[in-house]
Amino acid sequence: MAKAIRINAVGGPEVMEYVDVEVGDPGPGEARVRQAACGLNYIDVYFRTGLYPQALPAGLGMEGAGTVEAVGQGVTHVKPGDRVAYATRPPGAYAELRVMPAAGLVKLPDAIDFETGAAMMLQGLTVQYLFRRTFPLKGGETILFHAAAGGVGLIACQWAKALGVTMIGTVGSDEKAELAKAHGCAHTINYNKENFVERVKEITGGKGVPVVYDSIGKDTFTGSLDCLSPMGMMVSFGSASGPVPDFSLNELASRGSLFITRPSLFAYTAKREDLDAMAADLFDVVVSGKVKIEVNQRYALKDVAKAHIDLESRKTTGSTILIP
Length: 324
What we know:
Layout: E1 2-7, E2 16-21, E3 30-40, H1 42-49, E4 58-59, E5 63-71, E6 83-87, E7 97-101, E8 105-107, H2 114-134, E9 142-145, H3 151-163, E10 166-171, H4 174-182, E11 187-190, H5 196-203, E12 209-214, H6 221-227, E13 228-236, H7 250-254, E14 259-261, H8 265-268, H9 272-287, E15 295-300, H10 304-312, E16 319-323
């Protein structure tokens, strides 16, 4: 038996139960992983609340790091004893031990410890596809990135600076503004004190930005569109404040032929060769020191309800991990 978090109904943090589960042998295409740490991400809240539906009862958690104990038939890219990390479906990372699809596993370089590996995969791969594939940054651009002091945001601050990109980041407090600046964010906007649309126009001399990366959703969507220059790209990759409201395509035309996309990590990593290339890029910037993964909160797995409460109340900064 192994300890894991399970939900039998959707709802608040109280629906998560710390229980014993049977973990068997991996079947074809699967691996059994003994987890040293697992990551906490806002997508976990979406599954817990039912915003992202799944069959119940179910596990939660999309990323982790640990050691492969066994592999099933057909698995050749990892073997027992390998150090691995992942960010993949189905949910179930909140566990001491799990059997999972091996296709999502990548070997973790020796230079990266398990806690960092568990904290970096979903958030780091997200920044990788946002900056390198969704709207490829070449250097010299000025961009707007919401929630700049969060886990994804702090990685984005550093990666943008490494690419020679001027990042404008929104934050919810002066303390978070200082944190974002310390990680390479060129300009910060405290949305509780300032109008971020006006400040973006001021910073850019009225031009706006070619791309907005927005994981907030409802509260920032329209303002984000207003920050774009003509033919700019709105990248809506999350909805921490609630789903984006319905809108008319004319909203894009009236602002200057804007583009909009709603990407997901799992579409970008669906092909093995893409996952390997993205992970290699991420590992390279971390091992080189250009991007440091800030694990600012650690919770015991049994205290996952407290972790979710802190995440939803925006008390967390950087990355958060659960220790089985």
